[in-house]
Amino acid sequence: MPAPIEDYALIGDGHTAALISREGSVDWLCWPRFDSGACFAALLGTPDNGRWLICPDTDAPAKITRRYRGETLILETDFETPEGAVTLVDFMPPGNGWSEMVRIVVGKRGTVRMKMELVLRFDYGFSIPWVARLKNESGIRAIVGPDNAVLRTPVELVGENMKTVAEFTVKEGERVPFSLAYAASHLRLPPARDPHTALARTENHWLEWSARGTIQGRWAEPIRRSLITLRALAYEPTGGIVAAPTTSLPEQLGGTRNWDYRYCWLRDATITLLALMRGGYYDEARAWRSWLGRVTAGAPDQLQIMYGLAGERRLPEFEIDWLPGYQGAKPVRIGNNAVGQLQLDVYGEVMNALHLARVGGLQADDTAWNVQCALLGHLTTIWQQPDEGIWETRGGRQHFTFSKVMAWVAFDRALASAEMFKLEGPLDEWRATRAQIHAEVCEKAWNPSRNAFVQAYGSDQLDASVLLMPLVSFLPPHDPRIKGTVEAIERDLMHDGFVMRYRTTEYDDGLPPGEGTFLACSFWMVDNLALQGRLDEAIAMYERLLGLCNDVGLLAEEYDPAEKRLVGNFPQAFSHVSLVNTGLNLMKHEQAMARATGQPSHNGTHQSELEAAASPDSGTATSPVA
Questions:
Q1: What's this model's pTM, rounded to 2 decimal places?
Q2: Which of 23, 177, 579, 614 has its CA 20 to 30 A from that of 415?
C-alpha cells in the first residue's frame, strides 16, 4: 500500500518530478515529461507497479527524519538504526540534456546494512522491460518499446523475480551512489557522470535560483519553499506550469473524484505568474508569459482552459484498469476531458495576469495586445452563456457567479492596461460591457434570504469562489453584501475551521458527494478576514494552514479534517500559490497597521508598483487562486 499523501517529498529537474516516501521509496516518476507514462506507479497501486526503494535492512524500525538541504530541491532523509545512522540524499540534476535521478547513501555513524529494490514498470506500471548488464561498467540497462533506462552503481546487482535487488553495508564516512538515467530507446545511453559532482552542481543551481528571490518577513521561509515548489512544477523547455505532477490522487479517500493534473491550466498558471513576480523571479514569469502568448494565439473562439506542456490542445481522458488506484480509489484517469469545457473565468485570469505582467515590466509586443483585443471581442459574445465554472463541474452548465465576476475582471483589466500604457481599443464598448456585467451580478447572484452572493444565478447554494469578489476588486471588502457573504460562508461552508468549495451533498455536480476542504478556499478566507480588519483571526487561520504542510513544506489540493489527512493531487500549485500570495498580503496588512500605529512590523519588505497594482483597493487586484 502506498504511503499517506503527506508522507511524500518532491524532487525534480524542470522536465519531470518524482515523489519519494519517508521510507525511501520512489513511488511516482513519469519519464521523460511530467505527462509521460509513469515508470514508477506504486503510488497508484502496489510495488509491483514500479518503485525504487533504498532503506536500512533491519528488523528494528528505523527512526526517520528528513528535510531539504537549505533552499534547494535536494532531499535528505536520515535513518537512525541500532547499528548506526545513514543519510539518503535524493536529487535530479537540472540541465543535463537527459533526465536522471541520483541517490547517494552517506554513512554517518556505525555500520548499517542497506537494501535496494528497483522495479521498473513503464507505461503506468504495465510494461516490464528487458534487463541486461552493462558492458565495461557496473550497472544494468532496462529497455521496453520506446523507453530505456540505465542504472549505474558500484554495488553488486542481482535479478530476482522480475526485479533488480542489492544488499550492501555503509560505514561511517562512506558514500554509495546510485544513478538512474532515462533516454528514448532509439538513442544512445546517457553517459556516466560523477554523482558527487552532479550533487554539487545541483546544489549550486538551486542556491543561485533561491538567492534571486526578494521575499523577507515573518513567513518568508514557507513562502520561499512554496516558490521553490512552484519552480519545480514548471516545464523548463516551454515555460508551462503543471497544476500538479500526479494523477488520480483522490479528493476523498476511497472515492471517485480522481483527476489528471499534469497539464497547464490557464487559471493556475496565470496566478503563478503573480506569485513568481512578487517573489522576484521575473525570468520564470517571462517564460510563462511567452508560453501563454503561444497557446492563446489563434482563433479566439478556440481558447481552452488548459493545454499540454508545449501547448497541446487534445488531452483525451481515459481510464487504465490495471492500476487499483491510490489506496483503492478508482478510477485511475489519464488525460482530462475538462479540456473541452467552457470556463468564462479564465478570460479574466488571463487579462489580469497580462496587465500585471506589464505593470511588472514584462512588456509585450503589439501582437499580444491584438490577441487580447480579439479575445475580448469573443468574450463580448459569450459572457452571457452558462458555463462549467471554476470547479469544472460535470453536472451541466450554469450561470456561475464567479465566472461572471471574472468576465467583469477581463474587461476591467484590459481597460486598466489601455489607460496606463496608452493602448488602443474599443474602450467605450468595454466600459459599457463591464458595467452591464457588474449590474447583472449584483442583481442575479445576490440571495437576500441568505444575505450572501451565491454559487449561481437564482441558486440558494453557497460557493467559496465568491470570496474572491473583494480580492479582484469587484466590490470593496467593507460592502455589506461582502460582509454578509463572508459570514454566511463562515457559518455554512466551514468544517473544523477550514473552508469547503461547496456542499457536495447538496449540489449535484455530476459526481458522488464527498471531498475534503479545499485549501485555496481557506487562504481566500484569510484574505477576507484581513481585509475586514480581523487581522488577528486572519493570522491565526493562516498559521493553522501552514501547519497542514508536511514536514518538508508541501501541500496537496485538499485537507480532510475528519481523517486529518492531505487529499487530492500533490503537491498542488493551487495551494502553494495561495500560500504565497496570502502570506505576502498578510505581511502588507501588518506593515500598514504598524505604520498606522507607529509599531514595528514583522515584515521588512516594501510595497512595489506591482504590489500596488495587485492590491484589492486599486481596482486591479489579482485573485490568489492557483
A1: 0.94
A2: 579
